[in-house]
Design brief:
alpha/beta; Nucleotidyltransferase, domain 5; five-stranded mixed sheet; 11 helices
């Protein structure tokens, strides 16, 4: 059975699964050279044209993106229509109700563990994971942190859900993004905050970033007048409220020290240190609670937050007796693999463990082909 899993969201990607094994995976930006390309048309159509696909499945984009010229129709029916143009009898499976399930499935099936705790932490969360309606009749809730018990063939039991009302409070990853933007970068450059963190230290003048496992509402505000970049249905960014917290206001435009390291102040360093320290401790607390509840000492981790290698190292040191699997394709591109593998193991009730051995998932080239390709770059 050939399954095509795809992610039509930021970090757009496709995966071809042949009888449970990854045959092909690529992130669309590698082909288009458009950073975070959300529309994997090139790779999606290529696989449909060149492979016999039995079924397609998608993992819900954590957010829905308007597509230039096609804004009204970027949902599953739109992609299904494309697939059926090439394969009229193709079957379709929609995992649109649970973005996080595809994250954890991806990590678990790659981990090599027979059973484990699975944790997912990301910024946007699952839009449709919970049908929770507020007083205005709106679904403004997101599942932003999830902890599962995972076992074969497709048993994923919730141990914990972090549900955030995006109009009132902010989650762990968005706190990190808010500090990143406060330091002058954009929300997708959290890795720079991570890199700055080791230069900072504990600062008693900085208030607590979290209350009750969510962003401190006295510090972080969601401003609905400022749309979250190009993201449809996610209508606000999160910011540090400088009026309530004047001690957090930077003395100069941080863009200046981006190009001159001598311009950086201790406050910038300490802010980075604090958000790194506070978020990694909170993630560690989720894991500690789950270990006590299940008795398991195997943990797989997924979601964009786990691209934070400082946190990953912290967890290894905090839990020396625990075996960790940190999914290398932790961001949303990996859910194309998660959706495909989840479908395979569910349909076939397959208990075969296939651990992830290599990130080299592209075309294979012979030695002769490589030498031929190098020739045009070698001076004669």
């Amino acid at each position: 059975m050939n399954i095509l899993g795809f992610n039509p969201s930021h970090h757009g990607s496709v995966c071809l699964l042949k009888n449970g094994k990854i045959e092909y995976f690529i992130q669309e930006e590698r082909l288009t050279r458009h950073k975070y390309d959300a529309y994997p048309f090139t790779s999606f159509i290529n696989l449909l044209q060149n492979h016999k696909i039995d079924i397609i499945t998608w993992a819900t984009p954590s957010v829905y993106y308007p597509l230039n010229g096609f804004e009204k129709d970027t949902s599953l029916p739109y992609w299904a229509k494309i697939a059926q143009t090439f394969r009229p009898k193709i079957k379709i499976k929609d995992f649109s109700e649970n973005h996080h399930l595809c994250h954890v499935a991806h990590s678990f099936y790659n981990s090599g563990f027979k059973e484990c705790i699975g944790i997912v932490v990301d910024g946007m969360g699952s839009i449709k994971s919970e049908k929770i309606i507020n007083k205005k009749g709106e679904n403004k809730f997101r599942e932003t942190e999830s902890v599962y018990y995972c076992s074969y063939p497709s048993n994923f039991k919730f141990l914990y859900k972090g549900i955030t009302n995006v109009d009132e409070r902010v989650n762990l990853s968005r706190v990190y993004e808010a500090v990143t933007m406060h330091l002058g970068w954009n929300r997708d450059e959290a890795g720079k905050t991570m890199g700055l963190a080791p230069y900072g230290k504990y600062n008693s003048n900085l208030p607590s970033f979290f209350t009750d496992k969510a962003g401190n509402p006295n510090i972080f505000i969601s401003d609905s007048s400022k749309p979250a970049q190009w993201i449809k249905d996610y209508p606000q960014e999160t910011f540090i409220d400088e009026e309530k917290n004047p001690q957090l206001k930077l003395s100069k435009n941080p863009k200046k020290w981006h190009y001159n390291k001598y311009e950086i102040t201790d406050l910038e360093k300490d802010l980075a240190w604090k958000v790194q320290n506070d978020t990694q401790q909170l993630v560690g607390d989720y894991i500690e609670k789950s270990i006590k509840e299940t008795g398991l000492k195997q943990v797989c981790c997924a979601g964009g937050y786990f691209l934070n290698c400082v946190t990953n190292y912290y967890l290894l040191k905090r839990f020396p007796d625990v075996k960790f699997y940190f999914e290398p394709i932790a961001n949303d591109s990996g859910i194309a693999i998660g959706a495909a593998k989840l479908l395979w193991h569910t349909i076939k009730e397959d208990t075969t463990i296939r651990s992830f051995k290599s990130l080299y998932l592209g075309k294979k080239y012979s030695k002769e082909e490589l030498l031929e390709g190098i020739k045009k770059y070698v001076d004669n």
